[in-house]
Amino acid sequence: MDLLFTNIKSLVGIREPTEKRLRGAAMQQLPQLRDAWLAVCNGRIAAFGSMKEDADRLQPFATLPQRDCTGRLLLPCWCDSHTHLVFADWRAEEFELKIKGYSYEQIAAQGGGILNSARKLNDTSEELLYERAWARLEEIINQGTGAVEIKSGYGLTVEGELKMLRVIRRLRESAPIPIKATFLGAHALPAEYRQNREAYIRLITDVMLPRIADEQLADYCDVFCENGFFTPEETDCILQAGWRYGLKPKIHANQLARSGGVQAGVRNQALSVDHLEQMGEEEIQALQKSTTMATLLPAAAFFLRLPYPPVRQMLDAGLTIALATDYNPGSAPSGRMSFVLSLACIQMRMTPAEAINAATLNGACAMELEEEVGSITVGKRAHLILTQPIGSVSDIPYRFGNDIIEKVYIC
CA-CA distances (angstroms) from residue 263 to 243, 306, 402? Predict the structure, then answer.
Protein backbone atom coordinates (compact mmCIF):
# COMPACT_ATOMS: atom_id res chain seq x y z
CA MET A 1 0.00 0.00 0.00
CA ASP A 2 1.13 3.52 -0.84
CA LEU A 3 -0.90 6.25 0.85
CA LEU A 4 -0.54 9.72 2.31
CA PHE A 5 -2.66 10.54 5.37
CA THR A 6 -3.14 14.29 5.76
CA ASN A 7 -4.74 16.65 8.28
CA ILE A 8 -4.62 14.02 11.04
CA LYS A 9 -6.10 15.56 14.18
CA SER A 10 -3.65 13.56 16.30
CA LEU A 11 -1.06 10.95 15.31
CA VAL A 12 -0.91 8.71 18.38
CA GLY A 13 1.85 6.46 19.70
CA ILE A 14 4.92 7.98 18.07
CA ARG A 15 8.11 6.19 19.11
CA GLU A 16 11.77 6.10 18.21
CA PRO A 17 13.06 2.75 16.90
CA THR A 18 15.06 2.31 20.11
CA GLU A 19 11.94 2.50 22.32
CA LYS A 20 10.76 -0.97 23.32
CA ARG A 21 8.77 -2.17 26.31
CA LEU A 22 7.39 0.45 28.65
CA ARG A 23 7.54 0.08 32.43
CA GLY A 24 5.68 1.69 35.30
CA ALA A 25 5.47 5.47 35.05
CA ALA A 26 6.71 5.42 31.44
CA MET A 27 3.37 3.90 30.44
CA GLN A 28 1.68 7.22 31.24
CA GLN A 29 3.44 8.84 28.31
CA LEU A 30 1.69 8.51 24.94
CA PRO A 31 3.50 10.78 22.44
CA GLN A 32 1.20 12.43 19.91
CA LEU A 33 1.59 14.88 17.05
CA ARG A 34 -1.26 17.28 16.34
CA ASP A 35 -2.30 18.31 12.82
CA ALA A 36 -0.05 15.70 11.28
CA TRP A 37 0.63 13.79 8.09
CA LEU A 38 1.92 10.25 7.63
CA ALA A 39 3.26 8.63 4.44
CA VAL A 40 3.07 4.91 3.74
CA CYS A 41 5.25 3.40 1.01
CA ASN A 42 5.26 -0.31 0.15
CA GLY A 43 3.22 -1.04 3.26
CA ARG A 44 5.69 0.57 5.67
CA ILE A 45 5.64 3.86 7.54
CA ALA A 46 7.98 6.01 5.43
CA ALA A 47 7.74 9.38 7.19
CA PHE A 48 5.47 11.61 9.25
CA GLY A 49 5.40 15.17 10.45
CA SER A 50 3.46 18.34 11.12
CA MET A 51 1.24 19.72 8.36
CA LYS A 52 2.58 23.23 9.07
CA GLU A 53 6.13 22.75 10.31
CA ASP A 54 7.16 19.82 8.09
CA ALA A 55 5.39 20.73 4.84
CA ASP A 56 8.67 20.59 2.92
CA ARG A 57 9.25 16.97 4.04
CA LEU A 58 5.73 16.10 2.88
CA GLN A 59 6.37 17.19 -0.71
CA PRO A 60 8.18 14.02 -1.92
CA PHE A 61 5.02 12.08 -1.03
CA ALA A 62 2.51 14.52 -2.53
CA THR A 63 1.87 12.31 -5.56
CA LEU A 64 0.68 9.39 -3.41
CA PRO A 65 -3.05 8.66 -3.08
CA GLN A 66 -4.30 10.78 -0.19
CA ARG A 67 -6.69 10.30 2.72
CA ASP A 68 -7.95 13.43 4.45
CA CYS A 69 -8.18 12.66 8.18
CA THR A 70 -9.71 15.91 9.41
CA GLY A 71 -11.05 15.46 12.95
CA ARG A 72 -9.75 11.88 13.18
CA LEU A 73 -7.00 10.14 15.13
CA LEU A 74 -4.52 7.72 13.57
CA LEU A 75 -2.87 5.15 15.83
CA PRO A 76 -1.15 1.76 15.60
CA CYS A 77 -3.31 -1.34 15.49
CA TRP A 78 -3.86 -3.39 18.63
CA CYS A 79 -1.41 -6.20 19.38
CA ASP A 80 -3.36 -9.03 21.04
CA SER A 81 -0.80 -11.28 22.71
CA HIS A 82 -3.11 -13.91 24.26
CA THR A 83 -5.94 -15.65 22.39
CA HIS A 84 -7.43 -19.11 21.89
CA LEU A 85 -9.33 -18.25 18.71
CA VAL A 86 -8.85 -21.68 17.11
CA PHE A 87 -11.71 -23.68 18.59
CA ALA A 88 -14.42 -25.94 17.22
CA ASP A 89 -17.51 -24.27 18.65
CA TRP A 90 -18.85 -21.96 21.33
CA ARG A 91 -19.80 -23.05 24.86
CA ALA A 92 -23.01 -21.09 25.29
CA GLU A 93 -24.54 -24.10 27.03
CA GLU A 94 -22.33 -23.28 30.04
CA PHE A 95 -23.39 -19.63 30.17
CA GLU A 96 -26.50 -20.25 32.26
CA LEU A 97 -24.46 -22.31 34.74
CA LYS A 98 -22.22 -19.28 35.26
CA ILE A 99 -25.27 -17.09 35.79
CA LYS A 100 -26.57 -19.55 38.41
CA GLY A 101 -23.30 -19.22 40.30
CA TYR A 102 -21.31 -22.27 39.26
CA SER A 103 -17.60 -21.53 39.46
CA TYR A 104 -15.06 -22.11 36.72
CA GLU A 105 -13.69 -25.08 38.69
CA GLN A 106 -17.18 -26.57 39.28
CA ILE A 107 -18.06 -26.44 35.60
CA ALA A 108 -14.73 -28.05 34.71
CA ALA A 109 -15.26 -30.79 37.31
CA GLN A 110 -18.55 -31.70 35.57
CA GLY A 111 -16.80 -32.22 32.23
CA GLY A 112 -17.39 -28.69 31.03
CA GLY A 113 -14.85 -26.01 30.37
CA ILE A 114 -11.66 -26.93 28.56
CA LEU A 115 -12.57 -30.63 28.35
CA ASN A 116 -15.83 -29.68 26.67
CA SER A 117 -13.90 -27.74 24.01
CA ALA A 118 -11.46 -30.63 23.64
CA ARG A 119 -14.25 -33.10 22.86
CA LYS A 120 -15.69 -30.76 20.26
CA LEU A 121 -12.31 -30.07 18.69
CA ASN A 122 -11.30 -33.71 18.34
CA ASP A 123 -14.61 -34.36 16.54
CA THR A 124 -14.05 -31.48 14.09
CA SER A 125 -12.11 -31.74 10.84
CA GLU A 126 -9.02 -29.63 10.30
CA GLU A 127 -10.64 -27.93 7.32
CA LEU A 128 -13.73 -26.87 9.27
CA LEU A 129 -11.57 -25.76 12.18
CA TYR A 130 -9.56 -23.59 9.78
CA GLU A 131 -12.67 -22.05 8.21
CA ARG A 132 -14.12 -21.08 11.58
CA ALA A 133 -10.81 -19.72 12.85
CA TRP A 134 -10.32 -17.69 9.67
CA ALA A 135 -13.72 -16.04 10.18
CA ARG A 136 -12.73 -15.08 13.74
CA LEU A 137 -9.39 -13.76 12.52
CA GLU A 138 -11.12 -11.54 9.96
CA GLU A 139 -13.45 -10.36 12.73
CA ILE A 140 -10.66 -9.18 15.03
CA ILE A 141 -8.74 -7.55 12.17
CA ASN A 142 -11.85 -5.52 11.33
CA GLN A 143 -11.96 -4.49 15.00
CA GLY A 144 -8.40 -3.12 14.84
CA THR A 145 -6.10 -6.01 15.74
CA GLY A 146 -2.90 -5.93 13.71
CA ALA A 147 -0.93 -8.76 15.35
CA VAL A 148 -2.08 -11.77 17.36
CA GLU A 149 -0.87 -14.78 19.32
CA ILE A 150 -2.95 -17.98 19.09
CA LYS A 151 -2.68 -20.95 21.45
CA SER A 152 -3.43 -24.62 21.05
CA GLY A 153 -4.76 -26.44 24.13
CA TYR A 154 -8.14 -27.74 23.05
CA GLY A 155 -6.74 -30.95 21.60
CA LEU A 156 -5.19 -32.58 24.69
CA THR A 157 -4.18 -35.52 22.48
CA VAL A 158 -1.16 -35.76 20.23
CA GLU A 159 -3.18 -35.52 17.04
CA GLY A 160 -5.57 -32.94 18.45
CA GLU A 161 -2.78 -30.57 19.48
CA LEU A 162 -0.95 -31.06 16.18
CA LYS A 163 -4.19 -30.39 14.29
CA MET A 164 -4.67 -27.09 16.12
CA LEU A 165 -1.10 -26.00 15.52
CA ARG A 166 -1.33 -26.89 11.84
CA VAL A 167 -4.44 -24.73 11.59
CA ILE A 168 -2.53 -21.87 13.24
CA ARG A 169 0.30 -22.38 10.74
CA ARG A 170 -2.20 -22.18 7.86
CA LEU A 171 -3.60 -18.98 9.33
CA ARG A 172 -0.20 -17.35 9.64
CA GLU A 173 0.71 -18.36 6.07
CA SER A 174 -2.43 -16.68 4.71
CA ALA A 175 -3.08 -13.83 7.13
CA PRO A 176 -2.18 -10.21 6.40
CA ILE A 177 -1.05 -9.72 10.02
CA PRO A 178 1.75 -11.35 12.05
CA ILE A 179 0.65 -14.42 14.03
CA LYS A 180 2.58 -16.16 16.79
CA ALA A 181 1.80 -19.78 17.71
CA THR A 182 1.84 -21.16 21.25
CA PHE A 183 1.69 -24.82 22.28
CA LEU A 184 -0.60 -25.25 25.30
CA GLY A 185 -0.86 -29.01 25.67
CA ALA A 186 -0.81 -28.43 29.44
CA HIS A 187 -4.16 -26.64 29.39
CA ALA A 188 -6.09 -29.28 31.38
CA LEU A 189 -5.65 -32.89 32.38
CA PRO A 190 -7.61 -35.24 30.08
CA ALA A 191 -10.12 -37.43 31.91
CA GLU A 192 -8.27 -40.64 31.02
CA TYR A 193 -5.11 -39.34 32.75
CA ARG A 194 -6.68 -38.20 36.03
CA GLN A 195 -5.17 -41.15 37.87
CA ASN A 196 -1.83 -40.88 36.10
CA ARG A 197 -0.76 -37.25 35.79
CA GLU A 198 2.86 -38.18 35.19
CA ALA A 199 1.92 -40.15 32.07
CA TYR A 200 0.24 -37.13 30.48
CA ILE A 201 3.17 -34.87 31.31
CA ARG A 202 5.49 -37.43 29.68
CA LEU A 203 3.19 -37.43 26.65
CA ILE A 204 3.70 -33.67 26.41
CA THR A 205 7.45 -33.68 26.98
CA ASP A 206 8.43 -36.88 25.17
CA VAL A 207 5.92 -37.09 22.31
CA MET A 208 4.13 -33.81 21.62
CA LEU A 209 7.09 -31.45 21.94
CA PRO A 210 9.42 -33.46 19.65
CA ARG A 211 6.68 -33.66 16.99
CA ILE A 212 5.95 -29.93 17.27
CA ALA A 213 9.64 -29.07 17.03
CA ASP A 214 10.12 -31.40 14.05
CA GLU A 215 7.30 -29.69 12.14
CA GLN A 216 8.24 -26.21 13.45
CA LEU A 217 4.67 -25.59 14.55
CA ALA A 218 5.10 -23.29 17.56
CA ASP A 219 7.04 -20.31 18.86
CA TYR A 220 6.17 -20.67 22.54
CA CYS A 221 5.25 -23.27 25.17
CA ASP A 222 2.53 -22.44 27.69
CA VAL A 223 1.17 -24.11 30.85
CA PHE A 224 -2.01 -23.46 32.84
CA CYS A 225 -0.32 -23.31 36.24
CA GLU A 226 -3.36 -23.16 38.45
CA ASN A 227 -5.05 -24.96 41.34
CA GLY A 228 -6.81 -28.00 39.92
CA PHE A 229 -4.75 -27.95 36.73
CA PHE A 230 -0.92 -28.05 36.75
CA THR A 231 1.37 -27.49 39.74
CA PRO A 232 4.44 -25.24 39.74
CA GLU A 233 6.67 -28.34 39.77
CA GLU A 234 4.86 -29.81 36.75
CA THR A 235 5.06 -26.41 35.08
CA ASP A 236 8.84 -26.36 35.58
CA CYS A 237 9.14 -29.78 33.96
CA ILE A 238 7.08 -28.84 30.90
CA LEU A 239 8.61 -25.41 30.35
CA GLN A 240 12.15 -26.76 30.68
CA ALA A 241 11.31 -29.42 28.10
CA GLY A 242 9.95 -26.66 25.86
CA TRP A 243 13.23 -24.74 26.19
CA ARG A 244 15.10 -27.87 25.02
CA TYR A 245 13.07 -27.78 21.81
CA GLY A 246 13.53 -24.06 21.25
CA LEU A 247 10.12 -22.94 22.55
CA LYS A 248 10.22 -19.96 24.89
CA PRO A 249 7.87 -20.08 27.88
CA LYS A 250 4.62 -18.24 28.33
CA ILE A 251 2.35 -19.11 31.23
CA HIS A 252 -1.23 -18.88 32.53
CA ALA A 253 -0.78 -17.86 36.16
CA ASN A 254 -2.77 -16.80 39.21
CA GLN A 255 -6.18 -16.58 37.58
CA LEU A 256 -8.04 -18.49 40.28
CA ALA A 257 -5.59 -18.37 43.19
CA ARG A 258 -2.04 -17.44 44.14
CA SER A 259 -0.81 -20.69 42.65
CA GLY A 260 2.94 -20.07 42.47
CA GLY A 261 2.54 -19.59 38.74
CA VAL A 262 4.15 -16.16 38.63
CA GLN A 263 7.26 -17.43 40.38
CA ALA A 264 7.35 -20.45 38.07
CA GLY A 265 7.19 -18.12 35.06
CA VAL A 266 10.00 -15.92 36.36
CA ARG A 267 12.06 -18.97 37.34
CA ASN A 268 11.80 -20.30 33.79
CA GLN A 269 12.46 -16.92 32.13
CA ALA A 270 8.97 -16.73 30.64
CA LEU A 271 8.33 -14.07 28.07
CA SER A 272 5.08 -13.28 29.87
CA VAL A 273 2.87 -14.43 32.72
CA ASP A 274 -0.79 -13.96 31.85
CA HIS A 275 -4.02 -13.38 33.84
CA LEU A 276 -2.76 -12.39 37.35
CA GLU A 277 -6.16 -11.76 38.90
CA GLN A 278 -4.71 -12.99 42.20
CA MET A 279 -1.54 -11.11 43.11
CA GLY A 280 0.39 -10.39 46.29
CA GLU A 281 3.60 -8.61 47.18
CA GLU A 282 5.68 -11.76 46.59
CA GLU A 283 4.48 -12.02 43.00
CA ILE A 284 5.06 -8.33 42.32
CA GLN A 285 8.58 -8.51 43.74
CA ALA A 286 9.35 -11.56 41.59
CA LEU A 287 8.31 -9.66 38.45
CA GLN A 288 10.27 -6.57 39.52
CA LYS A 289 13.49 -8.58 39.41
CA SER A 290 12.80 -10.14 36.01
CA THR A 291 12.28 -9.33 32.34
CA THR A 292 8.98 -11.25 32.34
CA MET A 293 5.98 -9.20 31.24
CA ALA A 294 2.65 -9.12 33.06
CA THR A 295 -0.18 -9.64 30.55
CA LEU A 296 -3.62 -8.81 31.91
CA LEU A 297 -6.87 -10.23 30.52
CA PRO A 298 -9.70 -8.17 32.04
CA ALA A 299 -12.38 -9.60 29.73
CA ALA A 300 -11.94 -12.99 31.43
CA ALA A 301 -12.26 -11.42 34.87
CA PHE A 302 -15.37 -9.58 33.66
CA PHE A 303 -17.02 -12.68 32.21
CA LEU A 304 -16.19 -14.93 35.18
CA ARG A 305 -16.86 -12.22 37.81
CA LEU A 306 -13.34 -12.55 39.20
CA PRO A 307 -11.35 -9.84 40.95
CA TYR A 308 -9.31 -7.60 38.66
CA PRO A 309 -5.52 -7.45 39.01
CA PRO A 310 -4.12 -4.71 41.29
CA VAL A 311 -2.82 -2.68 38.37
CA ARG A 312 -2.03 0.56 40.18
CA GLN A 313 0.13 -1.35 42.65
CA MET A 314 1.83 -3.18 39.77
CA LEU A 315 2.51 0.03 37.85
CA ASP A 316 3.79 1.78 40.97
CA ALA A 317 6.24 -1.12 41.32
CA GLY A 318 7.55 -0.41 37.82
CA LEU A 319 6.20 -3.53 36.11
CA THR A 320 5.75 -3.91 32.37
CA ILE A 321 2.09 -4.52 31.55
CA ALA A 322 0.36 -5.68 28.37
CA LEU A 323 -3.36 -6.08 27.69
CA ALA A 324 -4.92 -8.89 25.66
CA THR A 325 -8.36 -10.37 25.04
CA ASP A 326 -8.00 -14.07 26.01
CA TYR A 327 -10.50 -14.65 23.15
CA ASN A 328 -11.91 -18.14 23.81
CA PRO A 329 -15.30 -19.91 23.92
CA GLY A 330 -15.47 -20.41 27.69
CA SER A 331 -14.24 -17.43 29.67
CA ALA A 332 -13.76 -14.57 27.19
CA PRO A 333 -15.96 -15.01 24.09
CA SER A 334 -14.89 -11.75 22.48
CA GLY A 335 -11.83 -10.58 20.57
CA ARG A 336 -12.69 -6.88 20.71
CA MET A 337 -9.61 -5.12 22.04
CA SER A 338 -11.37 -1.76 22.43
CA PHE A 339 -13.63 -3.34 25.09
CA VAL A 340 -10.52 -4.64 26.87
CA LEU A 341 -9.25 -1.06 26.99
CA SER A 342 -12.57 0.08 28.47
CA LEU A 343 -12.37 -2.58 31.19
CA ALA A 344 -8.74 -1.64 31.89
CA CYS A 345 -9.71 1.98 32.44
CA ILE A 346 -13.07 1.52 34.17
CA GLN A 347 -12.37 -1.52 36.34
CA MET A 348 -8.59 -1.42 36.79
CA ARG A 349 -8.17 2.38 36.80
CA MET A 350 -5.56 2.49 34.08
CA THR A 351 -5.40 5.81 32.26
CA PRO A 352 -6.28 5.79 28.55
CA ALA A 353 -2.61 6.38 27.75
CA GLU A 354 -1.51 3.43 29.88
CA ALA A 355 -4.15 1.18 28.35
CA ILE A 356 -3.25 2.11 24.77
CA ASN A 357 0.46 1.56 25.45
CA ALA A 358 -0.34 -1.80 27.02
CA ALA A 359 -2.45 -2.82 24.01
CA THR A 360 0.02 -1.66 21.34
CA LEU A 361 3.77 -1.47 21.99
CA ASN A 362 3.83 -3.68 25.09
CA GLY A 363 1.50 -6.16 23.40
CA ALA A 364 3.92 -6.31 20.49
CA CYS A 365 6.80 -6.91 22.93
CA ALA A 366 4.86 -9.79 24.51
CA MET A 367 5.01 -11.48 21.09
CA GLU A 368 8.55 -10.32 20.19
CA LEU A 369 7.09 -8.26 17.35
CA GLU A 370 8.17 -4.82 18.54
CA GLU A 371 10.44 -4.37 15.50
CA GLU A 372 7.42 -4.73 13.20
CA VAL A 373 4.31 -3.31 14.86
CA GLY A 374 2.99 -1.56 17.96
CA SER A 375 3.92 2.09 17.39
CA ILE A 376 4.14 4.90 14.86
CA THR A 377 7.77 4.37 13.94
CA VAL A 378 9.47 4.83 10.57
CA GLY A 379 10.10 1.41 9.04
CA LYS A 380 7.37 -0.48 10.89
CA ARG A 381 4.40 -2.04 9.14
CA ALA A 382 1.63 0.42 8.44
CA HIS A 383 -0.98 -1.44 10.48
CA LEU A 384 -3.13 1.51 11.47
CA ILE A 385 -6.47 2.42 13.01
CA LEU A 386 -8.24 5.51 11.68
CA THR A 387 -10.93 6.62 14.11
CA GLN A 388 -14.16 8.40 13.40
CA PRO A 389 -14.13 12.10 14.32
CA ILE A 390 -13.57 12.06 18.10
CA GLY A 391 -12.27 14.40 20.76
CA SER A 392 -9.21 12.53 22.05
CA VAL A 393 -7.78 9.10 22.82
CA SER A 394 -9.98 9.04 25.94
CA ASP A 395 -13.01 8.54 23.70
CA ILE A 396 -11.77 5.04 22.77
CA PRO A 397 -12.28 3.47 26.23
CA TYR A 398 -14.94 6.01 27.29
CA ARG A 399 -17.40 5.15 24.52
CA PHE A 400 -17.32 1.44 25.33
CA GLY A 401 -20.54 0.60 23.50
CA ASN A 402 -19.60 2.37 20.28
CA ASP A 403 -17.32 1.34 17.47
CA ILE A 404 -15.20 4.45 16.99
CA ILE A 405 -13.09 2.87 14.24
CA GLU A 406 -13.76 4.27 10.76
CA LYS A 407 -11.22 2.12 8.90
CA VAL A 408 -8.44 -0.36 9.66
CA TYR A 409 -5.41 -0.30 7.36
CA ILE A 410 -3.41 -3.54 7.16
CA CYS A 411 -0.41 -3.58 4.87
Answer: 17, 21, 39
Using the Cα atoms of residue 303, residue 307, residue 309 and residue 313 in order, give the sign of their dihedral: positive
**pTM for the whole thing?**
0.96
The pLDDT tens digits of the residues spanning 330-353 come to 999 999 999 999 999 999 999 999
Say if CB 80 and CB 148 are below 8 A apart.
yes
Cα within 13 Å of Cα(304), Cβ side: 24
d(CA 320, CA 293): 5
The rounded distance, in Å, linking the Cα atoms of 13 and 122 is: 42
> Domain spanning 3-77+375-409: which superfamily?
Urease, subunit C, domain 1 (2.30.40.10)
Q: How much is the pLDDT for 64?
A: 97
Contact 333, 372 (CB under 8 A): no
Block mean pLDDT (10 aa), the chain, length 411: 97 95 96 98 98 94 97 98 97 87 79 86 95 98 98 96 98 98 96 94 98 98 94 98 98 94 97 97 96 98 95 97 97 97 98 98 98 98 98 96 94 88
What is the rounded CA–CA span in Å between residue 16 and residue 86? 35
- 79-365 adopts what CATH topology? TIM Barrel (3.20.20)
Q: Please name the amino acid found at residue 96.
A: E
Report CA-CA distances (Å) from 226 to 106, 185, 223, 231, 276: 14, 14, 9, 7, 11
What residue spans define the domains of the chain? Answer: 3-77+375-409, 79-365
- CA–CA gap between residue 204 and residue 238 (Å, rounded): 7
